[in-house]
Amino acid sequence: MSIRSKRKEEHLVLAQTFFQSEKANSFDQLHLLRPALPETKVDLAAIKTTMFGKEINAPFFINAMTGGSPKSLTINKELGKIANQTKMGLALGSASILVKEHAQLDSFLVAREANPDGVIIANVNAKTAPKDAQKIVDELQADALQIHLNTVQEIAMPEGERDFHWLDNLKNLRQEITVPIIIKEVGFGLDQATIRLLKNEGFEWFDVAGSGGTNFAQIENARNQNDLSYLEDLGLPTVIAAMMAQKEEVNLIVSGGVRNPLDVFKGLCLGGQYVGISNVFLQAMEQNSPEFLLQMIQNWQHELAGLLAIYGQKDLTNLTSIKQYFDLPLQDLIMQLS
Q1: Which residues make Cβ contacts (< 8 Å) with residue 20, sequence separation at least 6?
Q2: Each residue of 178-207: pLDDT tens digit?
Q3: Domain annotation for the chain: domains and CATH numbers
Q4: Alpha-carbon gap, residue 140 to 8, rounded angstroms
Q5: Across residues 125-138, what is the average pLDDT?
């Protein structure tokens, strides 16, 4: 097994080791005002929408996890089946490994084979050459491409990148890639200045991927002989990152620490067109079974429809109008950053 594939396998093991199903995060400090008399009914059709031109059953999706190793092949095959059965989007883990190890293609392609007509999102790092990124998009028949910005993870990673001059290549990627591009963090949150900079360069989609869920500094620190645990607290909370992105009026995806349908609903109320979930779904499958995850996602779809009814919403179009209020620590942070 190559060094890259070995790292992928280690990430999967450590993601499970550090997983906390009820880990507190910024979603807990955001509250929504509910009408006692909503005059609505639960309707699964109310949460249906489209994602990159394809119909999906709900505005949440399986966000980037893995690919490029034997274990990830099995995982992506099962996730592809589940995405197909639940009619939801699926983002794959970083496929940049394919530039130097094309033999790992099957570990990504199995998801498209299991979900031939659904939404598949490819993922590469910010240094991937445009021609290589487009080849990955073509081979996976991807509907969109995530480009991840992961400087904190790279510093914590023993073999990580140390040159973060990425903007010129991002501009080249934007000009060459034929599908929508999503700029994505990896659990440390996109800040408003970066979103504004890239928006001015023509980027339209942003996944804030804030702190509160999987912590890749923690994961990489566990692989590191040096103690870089001080990096683990550098994340921007998901709620704050989403509020910053909303101010920039971009196409927004909310992810980072989403644990349940109420977190999904809050992400939508923060302006997210879609909400991404990674490790919660991965651990539901790994610690139980693919059938368990399938039932879980189906339950989430029904429960999200129930939340719309509770909050007096007949569809997804007006969720940002629901009045929000915050616990004082989060309110203080919002005021400091405004």
Answers
A1: none
A2: 999 999 999 999 999 999 999 999 999 999
A3: 3-337 (3.20.20.70)
A4: 19
A5: 98
**CA-based nearest residue to 206, from 134, 150, 133, 147:** 147
Task: Indicate the residue type of 107.
Answer: S
In the block, tokens 């450590």 appear at: 14
Question: Which residues sit opposite 205 in a β-bridge?
Answer: 182, 251
Q: How far is CA 308 from CA 87, 239, 296, in A?
A: 19, 20, 18
C-alpha 12/C-alpha 220 separation (Å) is 12
Joined tokens for residue 189: 């949150």
CA atoms within 13 A on the CB side of 274: 27
Neighbours of 274 (CB within 10 A): 27
What is the β-pairing status of strands 205-207 and 181-184? parallel
How confident is the model over 239-297, as pLDDT tens digits? 999 999 999 999 999 999 999 999 999 999 999 999 999 999 999 999 999 999 999 99
SS3 274: strand
User: Which residue has 């490029």 as its token pair?
Assistant: 68
Instruction: Report how far residue 74's alpha carbon sits from residue 80's, in angstroms, rounded to the nearest whole number.
Output: 10
Structure tokens at 126: 């910010």
- C-alpha–C-alpha distance, residues 96 and 185, integer Å: 16
Q: Closest Cα to residue 84, out of 138, 136, 120?
A: 120
How many whole angstroms separate alpha carbon 107 and alpha carbon 137? 14
Strand partners, 90: 62, 120
Helix, strand or coil, per DSSP, at residue 239: helix
38 contacts 250 by C-beta, under 8 angstroms: no
Question: Is residue 16 a contact partner of residue 286, using CB atoms and an 8 Å limit?
Answer: yes
Kindly state the helix (H) or strand (E) to which residue 251 belongs, with its residue range: strand 251-255
Amino acid identity for residue 43 in this structure: D
C-alpha distance from residue 216 to each of 1, 220, 266 (Å): 22, 6, 24
| Residue with token string 């914590």 | 156
